[in-house]
Every structure is written in structure tokens, then in C-alpha cells.
Fold each of these.
Amino acid sequence: MLMKWHRLHNSRQMPWKGEKDPYKIWLSEIILQQTRVEQGLAYYNRFIQHYPTIQQLAAAPDQEVLKLWEGLGYYSRCRNLLLTARRIVKEYKGLFPRDYETLLSLKGVGPYTAAAIASFAYNQPYAVVDGNVFRVLSRFFGLDTAIDTLPGKKLFTGLADEVLDKQYPALFNQAIMDFGATVCKPMAPACIDCPARKDCAAFLTGNVNRLPVKEKTLQRKHRWFYYFIFEHRGNWLVNQRNQRDIWQGLFEFYLLETEAACEWNDKKVMEWLHDQYGIADALLVNISSVQTQQLTHQQIRGQFIELKLSSKPDFLKSYQWQPKNRLKELPFPRFITQFLEEHASIGS
DNA sequence: AATCCGGGGCA
DNA sequence: TGCCCAGGATT
């Protein structure tokens, strides 16, 4: 059924479809982890344009690659991308491994990605199990085992292996994911057009909208980020984040994080500068309105406080002073680029 | 087994 | 808002 649907009704076009170069398949799969095709597409094209081969990617500077990844999120994917590219060039002479277990050993490659590479590039019979597959299987077989538990993962992984067309694994994997993305969608699935509805347990029992089941409900953490943008003679004070926290490897300005909201005004800013760092020569340029950024499990709110210093302070040794024209070469989190874009005086 | 890691789109 | 997206690493 799936294969026939794929042949006759699937018109989803993507540049990596039918691709046999494992480098390109791997790259597309890493980009698409927890990321919609529409969002990842431009990044994929940009990466292929900059780095047509894995050797070119492996030779690129970290910061250049992270800048290309800027805005896509889950930045550990980008760090692991480089680690793996360099390992393949050094250890495998640039030839991508074929073996499933070896693929799994690569940083950033888990069960899904290893199966995707093994099947798409080499047509090996490994079933991909992504969000689409969980959904299609749980609905079609009417299974309410929670997909975010170990029993659920085992159940659906086993099922995916059973239903996989061992003769055409690449086509089948492509078909089931496209089907999940365009027909058996998370919300408002197109059951009316679904060729499988007379065999679909969820459809027959009216449970389509209650499957798949997820157990955990994430709770959101609230954080307040107050960024002090210090400028001294055309140079801006920036810092590269390297704590175990969000946005690792990305740059930011001087950050004051608080648990509760702060009421900043001219007087409070000047007092804080003086009490904290003994700065008395600062010119307060602007205090922005409150900016917000919604992450999956954190809500970031905060303000940008722009200051001009007439003398270069000797504190904050680990920070860097960067001239304006270098600023746009650095990768920043969305929270910051969004603000910079709206304030052309700093941003561009 | 539980927690963490972004950002965008959509109802 | 809450949910989801071609998931994986870490603890």
C-alpha cells in the first residue's frame, strides 16, 4: 500500500531524495533532526554550496561552520557534524562507513540517522523510526503504548523492522516518512484521502486524534537575560558561551541573568555599573523594551542595555572586544540576532 | 530512565 | 499557549 501510494501520489520533492552520496545524506539527516524540512532546506543548500565534499567541511574553521548553522538550533548537532567529518577524513580516508554499527559510533548519529544512511545510501534493510513512523504505526495498529518510554520505543522499532520492505528499504523508508508528513499528519490528518483507512485501527475506532500517546509533559523554565552591550571606540564586548547550558559555542554580550524580572532605568543602570565594576564614565545609549524568545523548554525574556565607555575597563578578562565589521562574522543565538536586526545602528 | 538541547510553524 | 518537527548525548 505504502509503496503504491509513494509511486502514485507522493510529490514531495527534496534535493537529497534519491541521493546516493552518503555525505549528502548524512548532512541532510543531521540538519533534519527535530527540524522541519521547510526549515532545514535552506541550510542544507548553503552547506552543500560551501562544502561540496566532506573534506572541505572537515577543513573548515569551527566558527565559520557554526555561523552557517546560526539560527537552526540544537547547536551540538553542528559541533558533532564537524567532529564526525574530521574523523571520517582522518580515520576512513574520507570514505563514509557502510556498516550500521560503525555508523552508530559516529558522533551525532543515533539509531534513526544510522538507519537512514544505511538504507538511503546503501539500500541496507534498516527501518527508520522517526516521529512520522511512530505516528503512522501507532495509528495504523491502534497502539497506545507511549512513544516516549522505553517499552514504546522497543515496540515501534520492532514493528518498523517487521513492516519494512526488505527488498526496497530505501524506497519504503522514504515512503513511510512522506506518508506521515503529508497524509497521516500530527494534526488534521487527511484520513479522507488515506488509502489505508479501511485497515487503519485508529480510523476504524475513531482514535486517530488520540494517537500516538506521549507520557511526559515538559515544563518550561523562565529565565531573564539582561544583556549589557558595551561599546568602546567602535569595539563591542562579546563572550563565547561555553558553560553547560543553551547556546554553547555561540557568542553573546555581557550577560546578567536573574531569576526575577528587573526594573531597569537610567539611574539603576548607572548605579549597578558603579557598584559592580566601579564604572563612572559610561554613557547610557538605550534600554530596549522587553524581548522574548520561546524555546522548547525555556522561555527567555530580557532587555538589551546599550552603553558607550570612554575608557576601556580592565575587568572581564575572558571577554573579547570586537570591531563592528567582525561582529557579523560571529554566530549569535536568535534572541540576540533578532534584536540586532531591529537595531541597524549596531547590527549591520 | 530522566533530562537537556533551539527555533519555527500552526491551531 | 501547547504541540510537533527526518533525534541524540549526557547523567
Amino acid sequence: MTDATPDRRGGRQLPTADELRIWRDFIETTAALSSRLESRLQSDSALSTGDYAVLLALSEAQGQAMRSSELATHIGWERSRLSHHLGRMERRGLIRRQECATVPRGSEVLLTTAGAEAFRGATFPHLRAIRELFVDALTPDQIVAAGEIAAALRARLDVLRPH
Amino acid sequence: MTDATPDRRGGRQLPTADELRIWRDFIETTAALSSRLESRLQSDSALSTGDYAVLLALSEAQGQAMRSSELATHIGWERSRLSHHLGRMERRGLIRRQECATVPRGSEVLLTTAGAEAFRGATFPHLRAIRELFVDALTPDQIVAAGEIAAALRARLDVLRPH
DNA sequence: TTAGCATCATTGACATGTCAATCGGTAGGC
DNA sequence: GCCTACCGATTGACATGTCAATGATGCTAA
């Protein structure tokens, strides 16, 4: 990556072939990693990573319950996505919904016994898979670098808020 | 990250809190990045990244055509996924399918004029978005590191082939 | 020959995600 | 008091992805 070319950065330049290759490797590999984690979790525990995120948040919440919109913010989902997902999880008996006592027109999401058990059973295999597929794949330096890269990308996404 | 603890790596240890935090940042940020790219491409060109991958492969192919299974291998998709996607793209007039002359029971996928034009129109904005959201977000060193991290993760995924 | 098997591609059933519309209720502005 | 605008949450329509089953066709071995 030389600085000798006239309009290197800060310019209207398109990515170089090298940059594009790295981009493709990076984005495809991280997608494959997510997908592998997803199927590991699925076969280890019959939960999706979405289920896991919801159950984790509820497990750590006061009284194992949260307001729906709070939960959406906490795990960073759109509300309609959460609503659909909670409907599916409720049908499977993992959570329950009831009117919120304190907030008018609020809905409270509760962890059921079955949900808590499913989460307990999923935790260990899931963390083990994260170690095997991510932590053990990288050197300690690379893990730090991955954190910095994520932070830099996140900052860029935040600056370039969608229009 | 010290080596002083008894069972550091190569062990049955779960990830540390730091490792887990980095893991979450990393996987969520890359997912958000994909999603942002997807919506940029969508609003710039009315194409999805899936459409783009198919059109890119066909554009670069001999005669702007490929056998279906060749195409699936080339872009790394399952065949059923490709088949569904081609059906949708065919309905929109971006590609055409016809029986393959050389291979029995093979199907040949052809780029239409509309497909080629849609791809031409999408290329520049898409590459610009990759520059803005990825290349410009990172230092040159970080881009190199991202490439190495992707390679290491990919190698790990390949070693731990699903069962 | 023909039964069984492998291969290429498609299909159907279903899980998941997004976007826009809706529903019910609360709160201001007048 | 009433109209309106907003807010939390859900819903419907649709795009996309996976898995398992199904055609359709050629290959091979008894």
C-alpha cells in the first residue's frame, strides 16, 4: 500500500483490487462464521442465535422480565422483528407476554421455566463454540486487532447514519 | 493476555469476559456493516447483494452465461438457494434460463440486456459504498490485519468442517 | 435389459427479516 | 370537551434462506 499515487485517500477513489479482495474475504468469512455458529447452536440446543439473545437478556433482567421495547433496544433489534420473534418463541413456550402493570399500553416479556432451562442448557456449548471458532482461531494480538477493527467500523457506521 | 494462568490455551477453557465482549462487538458490527451495504445497494440500484453477486459472476463469464451449478460453486451458494434466487431474478427480467446445449439435464443462466444494464448502473455506487464504509473506516494496517483475521477464521472454519 | 444409484436442478414447507400499515390509547393545543 | 398527533406494539405482505423431498436423466452392474 504505497502513498506514491496522487490521490490516495480522502479522495473520490474506488477501492483497489487488493482492498476489494480483502473486503470480500472479510465480509464473506464473517458471514460464514455467523452461519456456522448458528448451526452449532441449533444442533446443540434447538435454539437460534436470536432465541439465545432474547433468553440471555431476560435471564439477566430484574425478575427475568423486560418491557418489550426495552428488550428491543437492549439487543438492538427493530420492534417489529422482536414482535415476530417473540410470537414464535411464545408458541414454543420459551417466553410469555402479559400487559405491563406500570406502563400503559406496554407489554412485558417474561422468561418461562422452559425458557430458562433451554438457556441454561445452551450456554455452555455456545460459549465453547465461540471459543473454538473465534478465540482459538486468532492470536491474542489478532483478537485485540479484531476489537479495534470492529470499533473503527462501528464508528464509521455511526458517522454515516443512513441519510 | 498473560500466559501465567495454568490452562491458558489449548484447554477446555471458556472465553474470558474481554474475549466475549470483543466477539460480540465483532460479530454484531460486521452484521451491521453487511446490512448497511445491502440497503445502500438497494436504494442506489434496486438490487440486493445477492443479485449483485449473480450479475457480477455472469458479467465476467464467457458469453455472459454460466451453468447453474458452476454459478453456485463460483459464488459459494447452495443450489437450492440459487434456484430460488434465479427464479426471482428471472421474474424481474435480469437473467434468463435455458437448457444447456452441452450438458444433459444442465441449465444455463444467461445475462439479459436489462440485467447487464442494472449491473453497470450498480457497480460504481456499490464500490463507492465499500470504500466509504470499509476502506475509509480503517487504517492501511488495519485493512491488512482484517485480511489476516479473515484468513485465520476461514482456516479455522475449514479445519472444523461441520462434523 | 433393467434395477438401482448418482447427479442436476427445482420445488414445497417453513423460519426469519424488513417495511409499511394498523390498532388502541394518551396527551396537548385550542 | 374534542381533534390531532404521537407512541408502543402488533400485523400483513413480501423477500430471502434452509432443509428435505421430488422430478428428470444418465450410468453401471447383475
